Amino acid sequence: MEKKEIDESIIVRFLSGTTTAEEAEKLIKYLEEDENNRLNYFVAKRIWLESINKSENKELADNSWERLKLRMEESGNEVSPARDKNIKFSWRKLAVAASISILVATSAFLGFQNYRTSQFEAREHQIIAPLGSRSNVVLPDGSTVWLNSGSKLTYGYNFGKRAREVSLVGEAFFDIKYRNNTSFIVNTSDLKIRVLGTKFNVKSYPEENMIETTLINGKVEVIPITNDKSTAPLILTPNQKLIYTKKDGSTKLDPAKNLKEPAGREDLQEIKTRNIQIVNVTHPQEESSWKDGRLVIKSEPLGTLAQKLERYYNVHISFQNDSIKKFKYSGTLNEVTIEEVLRALEKTSPIRFEINKNHVTLRISKNEKL
Asked: What's the whole-model pTM score?
């Protein structure tokens, strides 16, 4: 079997930390192939380190390969007969030196293996649901995740080996499989959500000021991400929704009677300080109806409804008059087109629309005055 050769510049780039993942993988395969390859790498590394250590100016490191090649070529020259007469070999010393070289080269090879493992584990899976579409994925632990339009789920290649942890941008519905008391963690921009086995919905779009978590069944711990390590997790029970305000304390906490478990004044004040609101939800399944192709709208201002429509239909909506953003709507959109939605708006309010490709303009009807 013919031995593979490798571009020597890849070795230098690896030693200087500038290889691509593909180049590093190629070098690892080269080292695995033959012991002499590993010895060659060890010699190259030693010369490289010498050239760097002798250089006062780090900018000269870019030229180290030329010095390296020259010194390697010189070390490979045959000894002249005249010099050969003056050289006395100690085979015992040579064997010891060779064994040391092999040991060091093997250590370097194991270092490469550790590098490959760490590089592999640092890689991530990304599941993306583009605007205007939805997707779902079954994770390695058997849990199922549905992603709403304009959302991204990220998890490591070592997911499930030591931990079950994902990061979410956007909205997702989670159906988590219970697994040997191993927590499942969802990271958002401001909240960490920890569960064992349960069903819940999380909405955390970067352009929106609210993060919402709605629990269908099971139990959820929600931990605000702050510098205060003493922050205690908040516990959600089924049919509860937690609303977190990102920027300020403008969220108004509902009266205690709206909480699943009425809290005292101190508890209410603590929640309010954290910009967190916990409310009962009569039909929690409606929070995740989007995964079944339905949008449930309940007394929602057109300004925020437009954001949902933009993601759901992959369109851009602009307003000629900001006052119409205050119009509120209720209803259910079930597998309808954006044109059908806009026509429904026209029939129920003094609004007219224009569509140009994927751009929608909303304006007040000429016959109406605000």
From this structure: 0.61
